[in-house]
Amino acid sequence: MTGLRRLLWPGVMTLAMLAVLLSLGSWQVRRLHWKEELLTRIARAEAGPSVPLPAEPEPFSKVLVTGHLRDDLAASYGAEVRDTPAGTQLGTQLIEPLERAEGEAILVDRGWVPDKRLRPIEQPEGEVTLEGYVRPSDSPRLFSASDNPSGRQFYTLDAAAIGAAIGLRQVAPFFLVVMGTPPPELYPDPARHLPRPPNNHLSYAISWYGMAIALLVIFVLWARKVLKQ
Questions:
Q1: pLDDT tens track for 60-77
Q2: Lower Cβ count inside 10 Å, N or C end of the chain?
Q3: This prediction's pTM
Q4: In whole angstroms, how far apart are CA 225 and each of 4, 184, 222, 228?
Q5: Domain assignments of the chain as residue spans, ordered by start
């Protein structure tokens, strides 16, 4: 009886920890199914044709949008180092608003441009039709770098914040990320494909379930030793 009493509280604590580990593993399994569905949807959208921009586009859908680019209201986003013909260079994403005949202006991520460049930036005149994918607007996170609205340098793709900084009262609540190949001897360098978020949920699930099994084995071995005393 004494042995059973010694098992009571360790057993309760083991069950509590076991429940937490199993719930974390199950949560990662649910995340795995969600991520696989998202990746399938992205792959399907990338393989399919672009469609005219609907009123309420799905995130990461491939669309066509027509309007006039306002290079005088350009801003920059992020910081990224790339290898170029001129060597390794630091650059940013070029953000320009696209004004449409109907509807709100859309902030367009035209692609990467180096801070120091030998090639000029392509500036199409008149009405243009751009192909790209819809990227949802983001919100600043705890450790996000601070934006510089007066210098039009941003580290969070917040459509409302960027629109306000460049003098636009109303902009669409998403971005158009241009896809394609860069024009010869010109910048910017657009995206080649839709983004694919990492999918590590299976390994995380195995880790949580593995710790649950290890905890259970350790408790059983310890309990057998206690009961033999």
A1: 899 999 999 999 999 999
A2: N
A3: 0.78
A4: 12, 75, 5, 5
A5: 2-40+200-228, 61-178
